[in-house]
Amino acid sequence: MSSPDSPQIQRRAIPDSGEWPADMLPLLQRVFAARGVTDAAQAQPKLAQLHAPELMGSMQAAVQLLADTIAAGERILVVGDFDCDGATACAVGVRGLRMLGARDVVHAVPNRMLHGYGLSPSLVADLAHLQPGLLVTVDHGIACHAGVAAAKALGWKVLVTDHHLPGEQLPPADVLVDPNIGGDAFPSKALAGVGVIFYVLMALRRHLRLQGAFAAGTEPDLLTLLDLVAVGTVADLVVLDANNRALVSAGLRRLRAGQGCVGLQALIAASGRDPKRLTATDIGFALGPRLNAAGRLEDMALGIELLLTEDVVQAREIAGTLEQINAERRAVQQVMTDDAERAVSRAVLQAEGERPIAACLFDPEWHPGVVGLVASKMKDRLHRPVIAFAPAEPGGDSLRGSARSIPGFHIRDALALVNAAHPGLIDRFGGHAMAAGLSLPHARLPDFQQAFVAVVEASMDPAALQQQLLSDGELDGNELDFLHAEALRLAGPWGQGFPEPLFDGHFQVARWQVLKEKHLKLSLRVPGRAEPVNAIHFSGWTGNAPANHVHIAYRLVSDDYRGGGAIQLIVEHCANA
To answer: Distances in Å between the alpha carbon of 66 and those of 60, 170, 207, 225, 328?
Structure first.
């Protein structure tokens, strides 16, 4: 496969620092300032700074609906989704409603292969025997017109809680809570689905408090749910604005203190992570994928069961099963990624070395639960919008696609433009700026590909096609130490929209070696330091030896493997200097 153009390293502008505590390291001041943060309160926001739940549209109506249902003793059915955000949102909804006095709370989640995404009419039909008084969607529903209508036809009340972008029309639910509905006054549009249902619960608790529902000292502590909120928020790759960072930071503190639910504690143990040193990166690369694996290859009901159990032994058993499913997911993903790379290589060769402006990939043998991971991998390789398709079910006529985009190109809006220009071409779609999903008939794939590429060509800013690495500049030799590495680790959470610090600099190569035939390990000399610094460039071996001097973009981390205050540079890009 032809390599994409080398990314350009561009240094972030660092404005004048703001008001900082006297004991804050200058490095942290620079990093925060480069992200538009000017004081400690913005840098590491607290729960007291959260936006008020009442600012969210229809919140009072949602709270009244829930309170009336609880008072009547009616059954509440919480319907989740088959990704990590949907699973944690479902667990938060079930746990929180029970804490707030609901006596009959049940839950369900669609099976990817049987029901497709969200609240579909087929899922409603399968749940009809539960006969709830109120159905609550979490992390979906804003685009589920037919499913909501089916539930209403059975006489159920429906509360939609979601964070996805709505279409031109809203579903016929009794109440809809979504900060991204047009005109909603809630300041943070970046809440994940789990964040939205947590906000609903906070508002419900306040309502019940004012109604005198809690005797002295019996008010439930909803902060115990923040471990789940943190995992779902990070795993869904929503922007970590100040509001989300406050939620995630609080959840991480609970997990580090061993106060997370037994399911998450078991998952941390199965992943081999140290709970005391857990970071948002660990959630994104270890916990999230293991939960997501259940929804991708099996049934997310297993993941939700893990998050709801109070039995330590059962939690360990389920976590072990998820570990096995995740290993299977990695194997399936590797085969599919290899197929995708060959397809992209052919396309690049046919275009005489030019990368296509966008890619639509399909293989009849691919698994619909893994196409999102393939699209993400190919998006990273090409630095282009990519949609990967698979049969929605074996031998079926419908395709399920997962889209991933690059900064500067809104993929959900692009699908909306295709849908507007070619009505009926797409069966359904939804998503965000960077990720979206869709379904369409297999026979219409060539038409869709042509229409999608045309939209990208018409609306893509050419500047977005050049991949850039934003660097926080050089580090002095005295900043390349354990103290600064640990300060950076604890200064997070880092993530989408609030990126982990990346630095760049020129180094002399003292030694190098290749590990597992693909990883490049470097020993780098640093002016002013007697001992070289270790660096690792994962999958960085190109078959050519590095020069004596290299220019690298890297992250400074503690070397947990070596311990004893050791550090390591995680190389993101390496070029001969």
So the answer is: 10, 20, 10, 19, 40
